[in-house]
Amino acid sequence: MRVMALDYGTRAIGVAISDELKLTVRPLTTLRRERQSRASTLERIATLVIEQEVETLVVGLPLRMDGTVGDAAERVLRFIRELQGKLQIPVVPYDERLTSREADEILRERGADARERRARSDEIAAAIILQDYLNDQARRDETEFPEYLTRH
After folding, report:
1. 12: alpha, beta or left, given left = phi > 0 and alpha = psi -120 to 50?
2. Which of helix, strand or coil describes residue 86?
3. Cα–chain-centroid distance for residue 87?
4. I want to staple 54 with a disulfide (CB 3.0 to 4.6 A). Which of 4, 35, 92, 116 is the partner?
5. What pairing do the DSSP bridges indicate for beta strands 54-61 and 2-8?
6. CATH number for the domain that contains residue 9
């Protein structure tokens, strides 16, 4: 089973997916919100979850730089609640501060022009969110030793 991440933006939702071992990530697609109703956007995400055999959905949460919840984060939290009502898997908010800037820098380094950066930055940001989430999960797993390793 895989983990999928979303970068929820005002115009688009970037989507990224992990491999089955949850070691690598790749951008998957960008869903353009202005072309779809809210219901069809939720349906498209539900379809991707099934098609990609996703066990956990991570959604980037745009906290303010001081870590507080602002208007953008409130919109994402409402979206997460809608997803939780539609999906039968965990939907996990994850701090996404500065991922859009990092995605833009990555695309610039790859030589992408402004048009390509606009088209792909959301899915690259989703991949960054997902990689950060998986890295955090791996660090947590490393600190949780099985009981037989802690006995003398």
Report:
1. beta
2. helix
3. 15
4. 4
5. parallel
6. 3.30.420.140
Number of domains in the chain: 1
Provide the pLDDT confidence category of residue 35 given band limits of 50, 70 and 90.
low
Per the structure block, which two tokens stand in for 59?
């959604």
* Domain of 132, in residue numbers: 2-150
Which two tokens mark 98? 């500065």
Tracing tokens 């980037």 back to the chain, one arrives at: 60
For tokens 């001081």, the residue is: 66
The encoded tokens of residue 123 equal 């899915």
d(CA 86, CA 65): 30
**Which residue has tokens 């491999």?**
19
Q: Does the predicted model carry a pTM greater than 0.85?
A: no
Q: Which amino acid is at 132?
A: D
- What dihedral angle (degrees, nearest 10) is formed by the CA atoms of 57, 62, 67, 69? -100
- Write out 16-53 in H/E/C secondary structure: EEECCCCCCEEEEEEEEHHHCCHHHHHHHHHHHHHHCC
CA angle 60, 4, 12 (to 5 degrees): 55
